[in-house]
Structure formats: structure tokens, C-alpha cells
Amino acid sequence: MTNIKDLAKIARVSVTTVSRVLNNHPYVSEEKRMAVLKAIKDTNYNKNINAVHLSKGKTLMIGVVLPYSDHPYFSLLLKGIANEALKNNYKLVLFQTDYLEQREMEALEMLKQKQIDSVIICSRASDWKTIEEHLSFGKIVVCENMTERHVSSTYVDHYKTFLEALEFLFSKGYEKIGYCIGRKTGSNSLARECAYRDFMNKHNLSYTAEYIIDDCLYFEDGEKVMKKIRGMVEPPEALLVTSDQVAAGIVTYCHNNHIAIPDELAIIGFDNEPIAKLMNITTIHIPLEDMGKSLFLQAVSKERTNNEVMIKLIERGTA
Amino acid sequence: MTNIKDLAKIARVSVTTVSRVLNNHPYVSEEKRMAVLKAIKDTNYNKNINAVHLSKGKTLMIGVVLPYSDHPYFSLLLKGIANEALKNNYKLVLFQTDYLEQREMEALEMLKQKQIDSVIICSRASDWKTIEEHLSFGKIVVCENMTERHVSSTYVDHYKTFLEALEFLFSKGYEKIGYCIGRKTGSNSLARECAYRDFMNKHNLSYTAEYIIDDCLYFEDGEKVMKKIRGMVEPPEALLVTSDQVAAGIVTYCHNNHIAIPDELAIIGFDNEPIAKLMNITTIHIPLEDMGKSLFLQAVSKERTNNEVMIKLIERGTA
């Protein structure tokens, strides 16, 4: 394979000059530049970027860790990250983890081995200690409230958000309120449970464990939720559903089975996806694309910042 | 930074031995292995994978080119690719292109510069010549019928599929048939248009240009389609809709506006997403995750293969 020395020999210039031409450095005479370009063409030389990275210590690649790339929540985050990455000439390395810690480790391992410059963790299964051990190897950015840790983060305050939605339902007269989430573990869901308990205590409402339904991610999970609820002796009158996809599935099931919304069951979705608008679902607007943009910018910034993203309850027909 | 020679010196072994330990080669005495591992630990040495790649000529990274990572069609393809990549210890570099040729070029450029081993092109804006010029730099796999070109491909025969769906509608008595697509250019859509024209000619039906509606990708586009149709003097009686998302948007709009399906308008969706099942939409099943798996396996295989994927019309309530 032709290397930079061969090029210098063929073009009859110094190695420094070849290097300057390869890196678009201005201080090269036009004559020498042409000679180098001709040598590059004649030898079919390709600058080996791995070698360039090796010398510069930068890869211009960012790892993105997310559990499911086909879920609208994560694919909108990813879209925001990807658009900003392209603008800034960065590439993304995708780690679709299915919440397997081992797959998250692969991203951290790549960071450690300098194959990527930073890691954006959209959601994780690993405990914080594992992440923390890799902080010295490069930038790690998370999508959860981490203001007390030494990382950058872009996040929604899920405690505050849940409390706001619960109080909204309470103000409308609902007291038997349940909620649907993706998984019970995870720092976001722990914040939600905390808000739920605090809300229940504040209003002297009784905590019903079966009102918390997990494993709710996709449209088709809406049917599963409704079958559970219909099997309850004392079903909830209202549900917070942390994904518009699932909320849409619930609304569709209720429609097909003549369950009146919101009279028999009130629904508040999350994310404000287009499907929520079209199905007239009351929801919490979360600016996912903007969050993705922010996560990317934090991943390439030297500063450490924590951006809380503002949410908004959008009242429509289901609550 | 510590390099492999430093490690050899510290551990008092040969460079070859250090290299063997780093690569888990079996022929190293336990004593020497321990010495090298101790040196690695003491110097906080991280094997620089960029350097390893440089010597092996392999990156274990595959580029994936797709226009939108947030569209269910592409996110399901991506899921199939990503799951198989993880099984095989490969990483994915994501190129979300918005159908900009320049962004597709970035992937081809990375292939040329040996930063990735292969490129999977799920859909493209660039013409074939551009792709062809990069075939010598590494494996390129496409998701379109390319049996006559020198690439591997996994594809649906969109001509055959469209014809089957059109004949199905014709057998049910529909003659004024339109269709909705993402974009009019692109080899898949050209195959569809060809099938549409052949079908029209065969049955002596008149070709109506306004029955072909493009820019249809998301749920919310269903509303746009219906507004166009309601503005037509002679609207179509049936629609092939090349995305279940859009089909679901159309069905929702019709439901909200008291347009009877299939009596006033018959609908056939594409992909067989969960939303099609729940909304009882007649659709064409396309095994997108399996296609993703096949694309990945082709990307890492030395052989050149062309896999036609079999589709299936699933009759439900909308046609």
C-alpha cells in the first residue's frame, strides 16, 4: 500500500508538504500541491483515516445507546441526534441494547478503546457505578436527571411531570388513577413512582399496586392493558400512559369494545406524537427531537451542562 | 502513551508475546501471560483498536444508510440489522440521509477510507453509477431488486407485489384505483408505476395521473391524502397505500369524517405493522426484521447473493 513517504518521493516534495496537502493546509505552493494530487491520483492512494485518527486522537464518531431503535420515543430522539451529528460532520455508532447490560458495556468498551469520542446513553440497564467507572475514558452524556453526578445530561423531570398530570386528573375529579410504564426499574420510572406515592399521600388516596402496569411500549400493548383492567374488581378511572403509542392502543381497544373515553376511563398519553393529535388524545408534549439535538451537542462539548427540558400538558378529548 | 514495545520491555517478554496475549492467542505460557497482564494493569494500557484495525484491515463496523430513522418501515429494517450485528459482534454506523445524496456519499467515502467494512443501503437518492464507482472499496448491499448488478441484495419484488394487490382489488369489483407512495423517484416506486400502468392497460382502464399521490410517509399524511381525494371530481374507489402508517391515518380520518370503509373507499396497506392488525386494515405482509437480518449477513459475507423476500396479502376489513 502506498504511504505518505511514497507519495513524497513520487511528487518530489517533502513528507511535510504531502501531509499539508492531505490536510488542506494553506501554506503549500500551487505547483507542489498539483504534484502531490497527481501522485495521489496515479497511485490510487487513499488517506487511511484510521491512521489519521490515531495521530489526532479523535474519531469524529459518537456512540448512541438505546434499548429499541423501532420505538417512536427512541427513534425521535435518534432523529434529533442524527440530524445534529450530520450538521457537525460526526458519525453515529448505534448500540441497540434491548436493555442488556452487556450491550451497554460494548459501547463503554469502545469509548475506553478510543474507537468513539463520546457515548450518549438514551436509557440504560447498567447501574450508575458501571457508567461512572468509564467517565475517565471520554465524554458520557445521559438522558436522565443527573445534576448531582459528574456528567452532562438532557432530561425531563419525570417527578414534576407525573405530579402535574396526576393533579390535573385530580382537579377533574378522578381519584382512582393508575399508570402504564415501559419498565419498573430505571431512574425515570423510580422518579414517577415517587411522584405517584407522594400524590397519593397528599390526597389521602390508597395506593393500589395493581394500578401500576409495566411492559407497556407499543401500540399492541394497549390491548393487554385493557384486558388487565377489565379483570380488576375495582378498575382505575384514569390512566397516565407514558407512551402515546400505548395510549393509542388503549383508545382503539376502548373504541372497538364500546368503552366510553373519558367517561369510563380517562387517558393521558406522553410524548405528543402525531398519533395523539389525530386520535385526539390528551398528552404531555416532550420535545424529543430537540432533546436529541441537545444530547449531541453535549457529547461534543468540553463543558459539563445539565439541561432540563420543559414539558407541556396538551388537553384534548381523552382527559 | 504506552505502546506494545513498552509493555514487552516492562514484562520482560518479546513483542510477539505481548501481541499474543492481547489477541488471546493460546500459545503463551501462563507465566508470561501473567507478566504481560500485570504490565497492562500497571501502565493502564488500553489496546488501541484503531491501530489493531489498521494492521488487520478490518473495522468490524458496517455502515447503514437510510433516509429516516423514525419511520416504522426503516426502524424495523434497522432493528433486524442491529440485532444480527450484535450477535456477530459488529457495530453499526448510522447514516440518516433525508435522501440527500451528499449524506449517502459520506457512507461511501467511509467505505473508501476503510473506516467501515461494508455499507448497507436501505434506500437511496444517488444514482446507480455513484454506488458502482465504490464497489471496489468494499462490500455494498442494497435493499432493491439488483439481480443484474454486481451487488448483493435483499428485496421485495415491488412490481409483482403491486400487481397482485391491484388484481385483488379488481377481483372485488374496484376499477378506479389509486395509490400512495413515499416518493415517485426511486427504483421501487418506478417498479410500482410500471405495474400500475401494465395493470391499467391489461384491463383497459384509464390512467389518471392524480390518483398517484406521493410524499406519503407518516400517519398524519393520511389526512392530507383524504383532503386531496375529497377535492377530486372523480375520486378513486380504492387505494394501495405503501405504508400502514399512512393507511392508519386514512382510516382514522375516514372514521372521524363518516366515510365508510371499504364501501366508499377500499384501503390496502403495506408492511403489516401492529397498527394494521389492530385497526383491521387489509395489508401486505413484508418481513422487515428478517430482511434486516439478511442484509446484515450479506454485508459480512464474501459471497454475492440476491434474496427475494416473499410477501403475503392479509385480508382484513378495509378491502
UniProtKB/TrEMBL annotation, chains A, B:
Q: Which InterPro entries match?
A: HTH_LacI, Lambda_DNA-bd_dom_sf, Peripla_BP/Lac1_sug-bd_dom, Peripla_BP_I
Annotated ranges, domain HTH lacI-type: 2-56
Q: SUPFAM superfamilies per the record?
A: lambda repressor-like DNA-binding domains, Periplasmic binding protein-like I
**PROSITE patterns registered for this protein in UniProt:** HTH_LACI_1 (PS00356), HTH_LACI_2 (PS50932)
Residue spans making up a coiled coil are none
Q: Which UniProt keywords apply?
A: DNA-binding, Transcription, Transcription regulation
Taxonomy, superkingdom: Bacteria
Task: Name one matching Pfam family.
Answer: LacI
Task: Supply the CDD domains for this chain.
Answer: HTH_LacI, PBP1_CcpB-like
GO MF entries: DNA binding
PANTHER family named among the record's database cross-references: CATABOLITE CONTROL PROTEIN B, LACI-RELATED TRANSCRIPTIONAL REPRESSOR
Q: What is this protein called?
A: LacI family DNA-binding transcriptional regulator
Q: Which organism is it from?
A: Cytobacillus spartinae
